[in-house]
Design goal:
The complex is a heterodimer of chains A (773) and B (556). By secondary structure, chain A is mainly alpha-helical. Chain A contains 30 helices and two strands. Classes of the chains: A mainly alpha (773), B mainly alpha (556).
C-alpha cells in the first residue's frame, strides 16, 4: 500500500495538464477524457488499496505512508514539556479513509463522466477550466481524507474550499455566481478560524499533530464527563470548523447559494463529498469527541436542529436545486446527530449512502434542468415522466432511498441513526423523526411537481416563447428570475443553434451515471444491515477500529509495520498500556476499560440473550415506526401535489405568515446581512475615515504645526533677529559716514596720511626711547 | 572568495556608475544595461544559497577592514541564514523590479535606473553589515533614491507622499542613531574599545535594564515607523499608492523587511530584557494592526491602496510572530517576511500591469477582466490565494507557524490574530470579484492585452517560489535554524529548555502519565500559562542553555 499517495496525485496531474495545456489547446473531448482517465485510474488504485486493506486482519487495518518532510522539527513548548513541531506529508489508509476514497473516486468518476455531456455546450476553454477545477477538487478531497495528520487534512480542507469557490463561480460573469462563491469561501473561513485554533491546541496538548498519536494519547485521558476540559475545548473548536464546512447552523447559509454552480458540481462537492468533510473530521476525532460528552451533546443538538430547520425550509422551495440543497443541509444534520450520540459508524454509514442517493438526485435534477433548457423552477415543470423515463426511474429510486423506504440504502443508515438517538436521547430522536417525515414529504413534493401532473413548462415550437414566458410570471422570486436568462444560454445543451426542442431524455453519458448511482442507492445499504434484521452490520465492525484508540484494541507488534516515525513517546506509551491490559485482564475495570465502555455503545457490550432479544424488538419497532412516518410524509405529498393540488395553495394561503417565513428561509440571510456583513463593512468604512482624518490627520497636523511654527520663526527671523543684525548694520553705516571722508580714493592723500603717520610713530618712538634712556 | 559579499553588494552600484557614462538618449541601451546588471546581481547571489553552511552557527563570508579607524567603525560584512534569505529576496525582487519598468518608465530613463540600482546596493548593504554604523549608513542611503523614485516618477500626489515618506523615516532614523550611540558609549565604558561591531554587542550581558529600555525604545521608534506598525502606518499607503510600480514592489518586498530584520538582528539579541518587557505593547499594536489593516483594506476603492493596507495587516502578523519569542513564532515571522515580499510584491506588479494599460487604479473602473486577460487572472488568483494563506502556497506556512507560536505564548492573542485570516479572505476575494469577475461593463477594458512574455517573466519566479515554499519549505527553514536559535538563546532561552514550566522534567517514558494527569479546568486553561514570553525571571542572557548552537562567538 506504499502507493496510496498516487490516489490524490492522479487527479492532481489531470488538473495540472488541463490547467496548463488544456485551456489553451485541448478540445472539449480531450479535456474531458484526460479528466475522466485520471479519475478512473484513481478509482482503480483506490479499489486495489481497499482490497489490500481488507486482506489485513481487522485489528491491523491501518497503514501510514510518509511521502516527505513538510515542516521539519522546530522546538516548541507544549503543555507537558519541550516538544517539537514537526509535520510530514503523510497519508493514512484505514477503514474510515478507505471508505472515503471509494466514495470520492467512485462518485467522482461518475460525475466526471456525466459532466462531459452536461458541459458540452460550454466554450472549449471553459470546459478545460471546468475539468481542471473538478480534478483539482478531487485531488484536495483525497488529500483531506487520506492525510494522516491535522495539517495535511487542513490542506485538503482549504483546498476543497478553493475549488468550491472556483466552481460555484464557474459562470463568473454572473454576479450571483461570483457572490455565492465568495460567500462560500468566507463563511468557510469563519469555521476554519475554529479549526486552526483547534489544531494549535491539539499540538499544545499532545505535542504532535499525527492522528494516531493524538488518538492514542487522548484515549488514555479521562473522560471529561463533568465540566469542560482541554479535550472539550479542542473538540468544540474542531466542531466550529466542521460547522462551516458541513453547513450547519449557524454557518449553513452558503450552501443553498452554492447551487449557482453547475449541477455536477452541486452533486459532487455540495452533496456527496466536500460538505461531508466536517462529518468525516468529527469521525476522525471520534476518540477525542467521545471523551468530551458535553461537546457531543452540542454536536447532536446542532445536528438535529439543523436537520429540522433546513427540512422545514425545503418544504416550500420551488427551485429544484434549492430543495435538494436544503435537503443536503438537513441530511448533514442527521450525520452530526449520529456523531453526537456516539454512533460514529452510523454517521459514516449515512455519509456513504447519502453520497449515493444525493448525488443521484442532483444529477437527476441536472438531467431535468438540461431537458428543460436551463429551467430550475418546479412550477414550470410537471409531467416530465414520459419525456425523461430514465431520469424519472432513477430519481424515484433516489427519492425512496432518502425517504428511508426499505430495502433501499437510506433506510438502513437513517434507521441506525434514529435507533441510536432513541437510545441516547428521546428528544433528539423525536426531532429526528419529525425531520424524517418532512424529508419524505418534500422529496415526494419535488418528484410530483417535476414528473407527475400536467406539463406546465413553456411550449417549444419557437424559442421566443421562453423569453416571453419568463417576463410573465410575477410569483417568481427575483433571484431565480435573474438567473434564468443566463442559465438558458449557459447551462443550455448542445442543440445546435441554441433553440430548445422541448423536454427530452439526456444523452447516455448522463443517464449511465444515473443508473450506476441508482444501483448504488439501492445496494449501498446492504453492508449495514443491522443484527435485528439478521444482518451482520458489516460496516460498523469494519469502521470501528478508526473510532477507537489503539492501545485498547491493538497488539503492540502491529505498530512495527507502520511508518509514522514521529511519535516515539506515544508509541512507548501504547506498549506500556497494552501490556498493563494484558496483565490485569479484561475483568479489571481499569481507567481504559471505563473509557471503552463509554465509547462503545450498549449493543456492543456483552448482553444476555433476553436483553438482546428485547433490544432487537425495540429496534424493529422503531424501524416500523419510521417507515410509517416516511409513508405518511409520502402520502401527504401525494395528496397535496398529485391528487388534489389545490389544497397546497389553500394551505399556503391559510398559513400565509408561516409560508412567507419559510419561503424566505427564516430571513436568516437578511439577518446576517443586516448585522455581521453590514457591521463589518461599516466598521471598515468607519476605520478608513478614522485613518484619514484622525491618524493621518495627526500626522498632517504635525506637519502643519511645523509649517506654522516655521512661519512664525521666519517672522521672528525677519523682525527680531534680522532687526538686530540690521541695527548693527545701521550703526556701522552711520559711523562709516565719518570715516568715509577719509576714503577719498586719491593716492596722494593716502600717501600724505601715511607720511604723517610714519612721522608721528617715529617721533613717539624716539621720544619714548629718549625718555627711557 | 574573500570578497564574495562585496561583489554582490557593489554589482548594482557598478552598474549605476556604468549608466552614468551612457548617453541618456540611448534609452533602450540603458534599459538593457540595467536589466543585465540586475540579473547578474541576482545570478551572482544565487551561490549564496548553496555555499551557506547551515550547520555553522557563526556569521559566514565575513569581510572585515577598517573604515573610520578613529572612531572604531569598520567595513564589516557577514551573513547568517536570515540575511542569506533576505539578500536573495532583494536581488531577485530587484531584478524583477527593473524588468517590470521596461515600458512603464519613459521619462528620465537613465536617472530612474541609476536610482533603482543605487537603492539595490543600499538594501543589500543593510542586510550584510555587521557594523552598526555601516548599517546606519546603508539604511540612510536607501532613503534618498526611494524619495526620488516616488517624487519624480510617481503619480498624482507624489510630492506629498515622497516628502511624507522621507520625513517620517528620517525622524525614526535619527532616534535610532541616538540608540546606536548609546550602545557605542556603553560598550566603551565596559570594554574600553570603541567599536560598532554588532557581534560584540551580541556578546554584552547584563546591560542595565534602564539603558536597554531606552535604547529599545529608540530602535522601536525607528523600526515601528518603517514596519509600519499601527498607528505609524499612514505614510505607507500614500507612498505605495503614488510610487511607480517598481518602487512599490521594492518598498513592500524589501524595504519593509529591513526593519523586521533590524528587530531580529539588533533589538532582540542586544536588548533581550527590554524586548521581553515590550512584548505586551507590541503584541497589542500588532493585533490592532492585523484587524485594523484588514478592515480598512475592505473599505478601499483604490486597488493599490487596498494592497497597501493589506500590507499593514500582514506586517503586523510578522511582528506578532516575532514577539511570540519562541522558535516557531520567529521562524514563521521570517518565512512570512519572505512570503510578504513574494505575494505583496506580485500584487503590486499586478496592479502595475493594468495601471500601465488603463492609467487608473480605481477598482470600479475594472470588472470582468478574467474574460479578457485570462493569464493575468490566473496569476492574480494564485497570488490572491498566496496572500490569504491557502495551504500548498507559501502564505500558509508563515501564518501557521506564526499563529502556532503565538498560541503557545498566549492563546487569547492567537484567537484574536486568527481573525485576520477571515478578514484577509474577505477583502482579497472582494477585490478579485470586483476586478476579475462579472461582465465587462467598461468599454475601455474590452481590448486590454493579456500579459506579455516580459510581464509573465516577472511573475514566473514568484509563482514558483510561492509553490515551493508552500509544498516544501524545509530548505528555507533549515537555513533559518541557527539564526533563530541564536536569537532565541539571547532573548528567551527558556522557550527551548527541556523543563515544563512549573512541573518536573519529563522523561520520554513518563510522557503519557503526564498527559493523562493534566486536567486543567477551563479557566486555568484560558489564563496565561506561566511559561509564556513575558513576566518571567530569566537567567542572565548569554548563559544560554544547551540548545546546541548560536551562542558561540560570532565573527572571526
Amino acid at each position: 500500500m506504499q502507493y496510496i499517495w498516487l490516489i490524490p496525485l492522479l487527479p492532481g496531474l489531470g488538473a495540472l495538464v488541463n490547467g496548463l495545456v488544456g485551456i489553451r489547446a485541448f478540445s472539449r473531448r480531450t479535456s474531458g477524457a484526460v479528466a475522466c482517465a485520471t479519475m478512473i485510474a484513481a478509482l482503480g488504485v483506490s479499489l486495489l488499496a481497499f482490497w489490500e486493506l481488507l486482506g489485513l486482519p481487522a485489528d491491523a487495518r491501518a497503514y501510514d505512508v510518509t511521502l516527505a518532510s513538510w515542516i521539519p522539527a522546530i522546538p516548541l513548548q507544549t503543555q507537558s514539556g519541550m516538544g517539537s513541531l514537526q509535520v510530514p506529508w503523510g497519508f493514512r489508509l484505514d477503514p474510515l479513509s478507505g471508505l472515503m476514497i471509494l466514495v470520492v473516486t467512485g462518485i467522482g468518476t461518475l460525475i466526471h463522466i456525466y459532466s462531459t455531456a452536461y458541459m458540452a455546450a460550454e466554450p472549449r476553454g471553459g470546459v478545460a477550466r471546468f475539468f481542471c477545477y473538478l480534478n483539482l477538487f478531487c485531488f484536495f478531497m483525497l488529500v483531506l481524507v487520506l492525510g494522516n495528520n491535522y495539517l495535511v487534512m487542513f490542506v485538503g480542507w482549504e483546498g476543497v474550499g478553493l475549488c468550491s469557490y472556483l466552481l460555484i463561480g464557474y459562470w463568473y460573469q454572473k454576479k450571483s455566481a461570483s457572490d455565492a462563491g465568495k460567500k462560500a469561501f468566507i463563511t468557510n473561513r469563519i469555521g476554519d478560524w475554529g479549526f486552526i485554533l483547534g489544531i494549535f491546541l491539539v499540538f499544545y496538548t499532545f505535542g504532535t499533530l499525527d492522528f494516531r498519536a493524538v488518538q492514542n494519547a487522548a484515549g488514555a485521558m479521562r473522560v471529561e464527563s463533568a465540566g469542560i476540559g482541554v479535550l472539550s475545548i479542542i473538540c468544540l473548536l474542531l466542531f466550529v470548523g466542521a460547522v462551516g464546512k458541513s453547513a450547519q447552523i449557524p454557518l449553513y447559509v452558503w450552501l443553498p447559494d452554492a447551487m449557482e454552480g453547475p449541477t455536477p458540481v452541486s452533486a459532487l462537492i455540495h452533496a456527496a463529498t466536500m460538505v461531508t468533510a466536517g462529518v468525516y473530521m468529527v469521525g476522525r476525532n471520534a476518540v477525542l469527541f467521545s471523551h468530551a460528552p458535553t461537546v457531543m451533546l452540542i454536536v447532536a443538538v446542532v445536528g438535529v436542529l439543523t436537520a429540522l430547520f433546513a427540512a422545514s425550509i425545503g418544504l416550500v422551495q420551488y427551485d429544484i436545486k434549492r430543495v435538494l440543497a436544503y435537503s443536503t443541509v438537513s441530511q448533514l444534520g442527521y450525520m452530526f446527530t449520529a456523531m453526537g450520540v456516539g454512533a460514529f459508524s452510523a454517521g459514516a454509514f449515512h455519509l456513504m449512502t447519502h453520497a449515493f442517493f444525493k448525488a443521484l438526485l442532483f444529477l437527476g435534477s441536472g438531467s431535468v434542468i438540461h431537458a428543460m433548457g436551463g429551467e430550475q423552477d418546479m412550477r414550470r415543470m410537471g409531467g416530465l415522466k414520459k419525456y425523461l423515463p430514465v431520469t424519472y426511474a432513477t430519481m424515484v429510486i433516489g427519492t425512496l432511498a432518502i425517504a428511508g423506504i426499505p430495502p433501499l440504502s437510506g433506510f438502513f443508515s437513517k434507521d441506525e441513526i434514529l435507533f441510536r438517538s432513541f437510545e441516547a436521547n428521546k428528544a433528539i430522536w423525536a426531532l429526528a423523526v419529525v425531520t424524517a417525515m418532512m424529508t419524505a414529504f418534500y422529496m415526494f413534493r419535488l418528484l410530483s411537481m417535476t414528473f407527475f401532473g400536467a406539463y406546465r413548462g413553456p411550449a417549444w415550437e419557437g424559442a421566443h416563447r421562453v423569453g416571453a414566458h419568463l417576463a410573465a410570471d410575477p410569483h417568481d422570486h427575483g433571484h431565480a428570475a435573474a438567473a434564468h436568462g443566463a442559465q438558458d444560454s449557459q447551462a443550455g445543451h448542445g442543440h445546435g443553434h441554441g433553440a430548445w426542442h422541448g423536454p427530452h431524455e439526456s444523452p447516455n453519458a448522463m443517464t449511465y451515471p444515473l443508473m450506476a448511482l441508482a444501483v448504488g442507492a439501492i445496494v449501498a445499504g446492504f453492508v449495514g444491515i443491522p443484527t435485528a434484521l439478521y444482518g451482520g452490520n458489516t460496516i460498523e465492525h469494519f469502521l470501528e477500529p478508526s473510532f477507537t484508540a489503539e492501545e485498547v484494541r491493538l497488539k503492540p507488534d502491529t505498530t512495527t509495520e507502520t511508518t509514522t516515525g514521529t511519535t516515539t513517546e506515544t508509541a512507548t506509551a501504547t506498549g506500556t498500556l497494552a501490556a498493563t491490559e494484558t496483565t490485569t485482564g479484561a475483568a479489571a475495570v481499569t481507567e481504559a476499560e471505563s473509557v471503552r465502555s463509554v465509547r462503545l455503545q450498549p449493543d456492543q457490550a456483552p448482553e444476555t440473550p433476553e436483553a438482546e432479544e428485547s433490544h432487537a424488538l425495540l429496534e424493529l419497532g422503531l424501524m416500523g415506526f419510521s417507515v410509517l412516518i416516511a409513508a405518511i410524509g409520502i402520502g401527504v405529498a401525494w395528496k397535496l401535489y398529485v391528487t388534489s393540488p389545490e389544497i397546497a395553495d389553500q394551505l399556503a394561503e391559510r398559513f400565509a405568515g408561516a409560508h412567507r417565513v419559510l419561503s424566505n428561509k427564516y430571513y436568516v440571510d437578511e439577518l446576517y446581512d443586516a448585522t455581521v456583513i453590514s457591521g463589518t463593512m461599516a466598521g471598515g468604512r468607519g476605520l478608513w475615515a478614522v485613518d484619514r482624518n484622525v491618524i493621518d490627520g495627526a500626522v498632517n497636523g504635525t506637519g502643519w504645526v511645523t509649517i506654522i511654527s516655521s512661519w512664525f520663526s521666519g517672522l521672528t527671523d525677519r523682525t527680531v533677529v534680522d532687526g538686530l543684525v540690521n541695527l548693527v548694520g545701521r550703526v556701522v553705516e552711520a559711523g562709516s559716514v565719518v570715516f568715509r571722508r577719509l576714503q577719498t580714493g586719491l593716492v596722494q592723500n593716502y600717501a600724505l596720511v601715511m607720511l604723517f603717520g610714519i612721522f608721528a610713530f617715529v617721533s613717539i618712538y624716539l621720544f619714548m626711547r629718549a625718555g627711557t634712556l | 572568495m574573500n570578497h564574495y559579499l562585496s561583489i554582490i553588494l557593489f554589482a548594482p552600484l557598478a552598474g549605476a556608475l556604468l549608466l552614468l557614462v551612457v548617453d541618456k538618449r540611448q534609452e533602450n541601451t540603458i534599459r538593457w544595461i540595467a536589466n543585465i546588471v540586475a540579473l547578474i546581481g541576482f545570478v551572482a547571489s544565487v551561490p549564496l544559497w548553496f555555499w551557506y553552511n547551515t550547520a555553522n552557527a557563526d556569521f559566514q563570508f565575513v569581510e572585515r577592514a577598517p573604515w573610520i579607524p578613529s572612531i572604531g567603525a569598520e567595513y564589516f560584512l557577514g551573513v547568517d541564514g536570515l540575511s542569506v534569505l533576505l539578500i536573495l529576496l532583494t536581488t531577485m525582487m530587484g531584478s524583477i523590479a527593473v524588468l517590470s519598468s521596461w515600458t512603464a518608465i519613459t521619462e528620465r530613463v537613465k536617472e530612474y535606473y541609476i536610482f533603482l540600482l543605487v537603492l539595490q546596493t543600499g538594501m543589500l548593504g543593510a542586510f550584510m553589515s555587521l557594523d552598526f554604523l555601516l548599517f546606519f549608513l546603508f539604511w540612510e542611503v536607501m532613503l534618498v533614491p526611494m524619495y526620488f523614485l516616488i517624487g519624480i516618477w510617481g503619480s498624482a500626489n507624489r510630492l506629498y507622499s515622497a516628502i511624507k515618506f522621507f520625513l517620517y523615516t528620517l525622524v525614526g532614523s535619527v532616534v535610532m542613531l541616538l540608540g546606536i550611540l548609546a550602545l557605542y558609549f556603553y560598550n566603551h565604558t565596559l570594554t574600553g574599545v570603541w567599536t560598532f561591531d554588532v557581534t560584540q554587542f551580541h556578546r554584552l550581558t547584563d546591560v542595565p535594564f534602564n539603558l536597554q529600555w531606552w535604547v529599545f525604545l529608540a530602535f522601536f521608534l525607528g523600526f515601528a515607523i518603517k514596519v509600519p506598525m499601527f498607528p505609524f502606518h499612514t505614510w505607507l499607503p500614500d507612498a505605495h499608492t503614488d510610487a511607480p510600480t517598481a518602487g512599490s514592489v521594492i518598498l513592500a518586498a524589501v524595504l519593509l523587511k529591513m526593519v523586521t530584520y533590524g528587530f531580529l538582528r539588533f533589538s532582540l539579541p542586544i536588548l533581550p530584557d527590554a524586548s521581553r518587557s515590550f512584548v505586551p505593547m507590541i503584541v497589542v499594536l500588532s493585533i490592532i494592526g492585523i484587524v485594523y489593516g484588514a478592515l480598512v483594506a475592505m473599505a478601499q476603492k483604490d486597488w493599490k491602496r487596498l494592497v497597501a493596507y493589506s500590507s499593514v495587516s500582514h506586517m503586523a502578523m510578522v511582528m506578532l510572530g516575532m514577539f511570540a519569542l519562541n522558535p516557531v513564532g520567529i521562524t514563521g515571522s521570517i518565512v512570512q517576511q519572505l512570503n510578504h515580499g513574494i505575494s505583496t510584491g506580485a500584487l503590486f506588479l499586478l496592479v502595475g500591469v493594468v495601471y500601465e494599460r488603463r492609467h487608473t487604479r480605481e477598482i470600479s473602473e475594472y470588472g470582468g477582466l478574467s474574460k479578457i486577460m485570462p493569464v493575468y487572472a490566473a496569476v492574480f488568483l494564485v497570488m490572491t490565494m498566496s496572500s490569504i494563506g491557502l495551504p500548498t502556497l507559501n502564505g500558509f506556512i508563515g501564518e501557521f507557524l506564526i499563529l502556532q507560536g503565538v498560541f503557545v505564548a498566549n492563546k487569547v492573542w492567537a484567537a484574536f490574530a486568527a481573525v485576520g485570516i477571515v478578514l484577509g479572505a474577505a477583502y482579497m476575494l472582494q477585490l478579485y470579484q470586483r476586478t476579475m469577475f462579472g461582465a465587462v461593463e467598461n468599454p475601455k477594458n474590452e481590448r486590454l492585452l493579456d500579459l506579455s512574455h516580459r510581464e509573465f517573466a516577472t511573475f514566473a519566479p514568484l509563482i514558483i517560489l510561492a509553490v515551493w515554499i508552500g509544498l516544501y519549505p524545509k530548505p528555507f527553514l533549515d537555513r533559518l535554524e541557527t539564526s533563530v536559535a541564536h536569537v532565541i538563546a539571547r532573548v528567551n532561552p527558556q522557550s527551548t529548555t527541556q523543563t515544563a514550566c512549573g512541573s518536573a522534567p519529563v522523561t520520554p517514558g513518563a510522557a503519557v502519565a503526564t498527559i493523562a494527569s493534566v486536567e486543567p479546568s477551563a479557566s486555568a486553561f484560558l489564563s496565561q500559562t506561566p511559561c509564556d514570553a513575558n513576566g518571567n525571571p530569566l537567567p542572565a542572557a548569554g548563559q544560554a542553555p544547551s540548545t546546541g548552537s548560536g551562542q558561540g562567538p560570532v565573527g572571526r
